[in-house]
Amino acid sequence: MKLTKKQRNCPYCHKKGGDHHVTMIEDDPDGQAGLVLRKDGWHIWTADPFTFEVLYPIAYCPVCGRPLGGE
């Protein structure tokens, strides 16, 4: 698959971190969201005053749309 310039330069999904490292996408008083690369794949992490913290497995970067499987 050929990546777009936005996908090749995405600062969110290309940043590698250890297990449970969160790369923040949004951080405001109403809620937070970030990307997490764990041993079992990519997840989006969300937290707000009502749901607390939740991890959702994802297949595409929510910022640039790059497929995250098969890296």
| Order of strands across the main sheet | 1-2-3-4
What's the end-to-end separation, in Å?
A: 12 Å
- What is the H-and-E element order? HEEEE
Give the CA-based shape: globular
**Helical element count?**
1
- Give the helix/strand class: mainly beta
Radius of gyration: 12 Å
Taking the sheet with the most strands, its summary is: 4 strands, antiparallel
Number of strands: 4
Measured as a percent range, the helix fraction is under 10%
Strand share of the residues? Answer: 35-45%
Could you report the average pLDDT, rounded to the nearest whole number? 81
Show unreliable segments. Answer: none
SSE blueprint:
Elements: H1 5-8, E1 22-28, E2 31-38, E3 41-48, E4 52-57
Antiparallel strand pairs: 1-2, 2-3, 3-4
Question: What labels would you give this structure?
Answer:
globular; 71 residues; 4 strands; mainly beta
Q: How would you summarize what this structure contains?
A:
This protein is mostly beta strands.
Explain the overall architecture:
The chain is built from 1 helix and 4 strands. By secondary structure, it is mostly beta strands.
